[in-house]
C-alpha cells in the first residue's frame, strides 16, 4: 500500500529546485518569466500544439497564467517548474509540471521554446519530474494528454514507458479546429 502522507509531505517544505546536468528546474516567477513565456508559446511551431485557450495573447494573460501555475504549489494541487539552463537560470525556456493531484495520481505537462527543440531538454526535464513524482510524492499514476499529430511529444512519453490508453476525440481546439488527443499513462514504480 502506498504511503498517502508522502503526497502531502512534499508540500510542507520549500518549492523543490531540481538540477539536471546543464539544466535547472526552478519555481516559475510570474513577474520575470511572463515575457519569455508569452514569446515562446506564441511561436507558430509551439502554438500548433498548445490549446487555443492556453496561448497568452498579451503580457497580462501571460502573467496571469504563470501566477496560476505558481499558485498550484501553495494550494497543494501541483508543481510547475520553469525550465532554465544552468548558465542562465533567470531565462525561462520551457515549463514542466505535475498537476491535478488526487488519489496518488497526477497529470504531466511540458513545453519547450522552439529554438531549444531537438536538444533532449524535454526528455531530461520529463525524466527528472517523473523521478520526483514517484520517489518524493509517491504517485502511483502519472498521465498525459497529447495531440495525435505531436509526434515528438508522443516519442518522449513512450521513451519514458508511458502507454497509450485511448484516443479522446475532439478533445481540444488547436488553431481554431477540434483536435483528437491520445491519453497516455505510466503506472507504478
What does this structure look like?
The relative contact order is 0.16. 32% of the residues lie in helices and 33% in strands. A hairpin with a 2-residue loop joins strand 4 (94-102) and strand 5 (105-112). With 189 residues, the chain is of the alpha+beta class. It is globular, with a radius of gyration of 16 Å. It starts with a helix and ends with a strand. The model has no long low-confidence stretch (mean pLDDT 92). Helix 2 packs across helix 4. It has 6 helices and 8 strands; from the N terminus they run αββαααβββαβαββ. It has an 8-stranded mixed β-sheet, with helices on both faces.
Helix and strand topology:
Layout: H1 5-9, E1 18-20, E2 23-27, H2 30-41, H3 44-47, H4 59-74, E3 78-85, E4 94-102, E5 105-112, H5 121-135, E6 141-147, H6 151-159, E7 163-174, E8 177-187
Parallel strand pairs: 5-6
Antiparallel strand pairs: 1-2, 2-3, 3-4, 4-5, 6-8, 7-8
Largest sheet: 8 strands, mixed
Rounded radius of gyration (Å): 16 Å
Q: Which geometry do the CA atoms define?
A: globular
The overall average pLDDT, rounded, is 92
Number of helices: 6
Order of helices and strands: HEEHHHEEEHEHEE
Helix share bin: 25-40%
What structural category arises from helix and sheet content?
alpha+beta
